[in-house]
Amino acid sequence: MKTKFALLAGLAAVALSTPAFADDIIIRITGSTAMRSQINTTLTTATPTGLGYTLAAWTTNSANAGASAKYQVYTKGTTPNKITILTSWSGSVAGIQAAAQNLTGLKWLPEGTTDLTGTLAESTAVADNTNKADIAFSDVWQKASVFNTPLLTDTIVGVVQFRWVTSYGSPITNITPQQVRVLYETGKLPLSFFTGNTPDASTFVYATGRDPDSGTRVTAFAETGLGTNPTVIQHKATLDTVTGAVTEIYPYAATTLFGISLVQGNSGESSGGNLAAFFRYNTSSVPVKTAAGGSVVTAAAPVHFIGYLGTSDAATATATASGVQNPGVIVGYNGVNPSSSGTALADAIKRGNYHFWSYLHAMHNGITGDKATFYTDLTTVLKGTAASNIKLTDMLVERFSDGGPIYKK
């Protein structure tokens, strides 16, 4: 490639110089959905404060005009100096795997796709068995994943916040690392374990959460001392969208992910949005079963869920009642319970008072030339971009591993 990117006057703005030998460039980005909307803003904001791309197409299931779509196409310039950015947002661990193993076969929208209606089905994306991802985002360190070699180039670009959430109507107000460990090792605990009230001993709280592809899961378990890849017991809910009730809960089925076998209970939801819905449904009379539609283990009775979510999904889980859905409840962590969003949570993280957070990492496996320059420009802008009221540059504390000690800068 002979085209050049230039960083203008110390600002992370990208401009194309006149090429000696011009080629169109395609850059493929995958991995964590954390800060996806901030990445979209950075790409589409005009120079000199952004990179000046145009969002040309995106798939459905996006609540923010394409900013949070799974598949996107961004463009800048025209042939022979055209740059195309393709995204295939998956999960942190899947992103690390794609970069570390130089995987092909990921799905992308075809180059040249243009659709501003937001009605493109995700099935429009097709597998590319030739090209690999150039950049992967992750909200956990590579060393926290099972794909820890070869060592990827890693730039920290932001701070990702997380919350513990419980079911609508739950009286739980706080959870400690010790409680998390026992809950997820056993799959359930008496409500009295959290409230201290003897009458609550007959009501049970069930663990739920994400699958092992999730950086949120890795962070939650690392932060609470379970480790980055523990075997846990999590439960899935069947939701009645007409009545707003949970009709059954059961351990997640045994499955295989990344070629690794997961025993019953050790999987979870593939997205935070799906998990968020669990906390908004009525759990006043729910049978516990062996599997979906399986044998009843425990007759219908009041139950509660506890799980972990990113702040945007936590906001969804606890949003004002709508239709048959009701707001779930934010749970304080280790005695700290700032608001679910806004400056209170951000300030608690910046000061080191609230510990359930991680960094967002941008990684690559040896890209060079124009792609490497784009990576530098993108990561430079993101470091100064606020995500949920926090810029990386505003942090007063730091840590050096997922769930690790927090130090004053």
CATH class of the largest domain: Alpha Beta
CATH superfamily of the largest domain: Periplasmic binding protein-like II
- What's the story with the biggest beta sheet? 13 strands, mixed
Poorly predicted residue ranges: 1-22
Radius of gyration computed on alpha carbons: 22 Å
- Quaternary state reads single chain
* Shape field: globular
Total domains, how many? Answer: 2
Number of strands: 25
Number of helices: 9
Q: Which CATH architecture of the largest domain?
A: 3-Layer(aba) Sandwich
Question: Per CATH, what is the topology of the largest domain?
Answer: D-Maltodextrin-Binding Protein, domain 2
Could you tell me the strand content as a percent range? 25-35%
How far is the N terminus from the C terminus? 40 Å
Mean pLDDT score, rounded?
91
Percent helix range:
10-25%
Q: Structural class per helix/strand content? A: alpha+beta
Q: What keywords describe this structure?
A:
disordered N terminus; alpha+beta; D-Maltodextrin-Binding Protein, domain 2; two-stranded antiparallel ribbon; 409 residues; 2 domains; globular; 13-stranded mixed beta sheet; 9 helices
